[in-house]
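Translate sequence into structure tokens.
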Amino acid sequence: MKKDLLVGLDVGTTKIFALVSKIRKGSSFDILGAGIVPSRGVTKGVVTNVKDTSQRIKKVIKKPKSDSGSRLDIVWVGKAGSFIRG
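Result follows.
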């Protein structure tokens, strides 16, 4: 696992987006790769079909994983919806 990589995943109703970046000294980073696919299995922010959603997540992570040339072990996931409470 490379500790200098930051992987973000946003699972939304219309699209699923993944981004891989390399953390630099200080507070800067370099974008290594990104992927985006239309979302399936998510309705109004709620996962309604786990199989469709997981297939889309696997698909969207392939390009940034390939671009970074590294194994991606830790992913930060963004999820929004009216059901989220803090």
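Note: The first helix runs from residue 50 to 68.
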